[in-house]
Amino acid sequence: MSAHSIIQSFREWRQGGEPMVLATVYETLGSTYSKAGHRILIAANGDYQGLVSGGCLEGDLAERARVALESGQAAAVTYDMRDDADELWGLGVGCNGLLRVFLQPLAPGTGYEPFASIVAALLVTRPSSVATVIASQQSAVPIGATLVWDGDVVSAWGLGAPGIERLAAGCAAVYGRAAASYETGPEGLEVLYSPLQPIPRLLVLGGGLDAVPLVKFAAGLGWLVTVVDHRPAYLEHGDFAAAANRELIRPAELAQVIDLSMFSAVVVMSHHLVTDRTYLAQLGEVPAAYLGVLGPSARRERLLADLGEAGAALRGRLKGPVGIDIGADSPESIALSVLADIHAVLKGVSQAAGGSPSGD
Q: pTM for this structure?
């Protein structure tokens, strides 16, 4: 489940005043479905959003979450499935790994902290990191204390100044990284330091029929999608219900109306040369990790040449054709290839600009 889906459930359960438990994977060994830093949310009635396993452990976690809610105390649980002995637990998972999960009760009376602050950090456009105290014998950093940090203190749940100072360095160490770090220290101190990457925001410039599956698939991944077009009929009659925003904007006014710096990825796909060129002229300084234009490489080169200095600022960054080569031959398969390409870039595993023959 995506972070966005978990946040939606959090909002619904919070609105109903329902207690919850935040379950965070803090250590793994061997083959496991999830890794350190992964989170799911469990409601008081046993419902859950997200998975720490393929569905094998969540029922047991829900029961342990109920106990944590009754006690009001955070708790840690270990699932060791590195051999057939896990059948003795009645789970029969057979994943050949060890997984440790930390359960933190979230109550209306405490504003559902610390998860409320984690959610807020995921919904902004800059990265941050979070420290969660798993075990401790130090009064300054009690069990369950949580620091959200983005270069400065965003939220310090259960922490005073000494505790904040103790945890800030670990937050800085994982800031901007892909993987979490589980560290042990003196006096039984155990802390999970996790990077928090904002929910990806995708800007689709062009509301044609082939943009519909791209928007749907991206929203299905939990991304926040904005669709822009200057043609009212495209936005009114296109099936863009999954988009977070639909904007009717003249191409030349794009940068005046929308803050382009907030997007992780931008795909230009108006299928109109002049319109695409107008969009691209405003994207040279945009810090998005992914910039792409639909169509073959010759079309991209023509656009860059026509743009002059603005095109020079895009050269080496602008992908065209967009997408990973999967033999895409339909709007749906092209959308799949484009999203796979964007996902790879955002995860730091992409190839150089100018990928596969997807597009016009």
A: 0.85
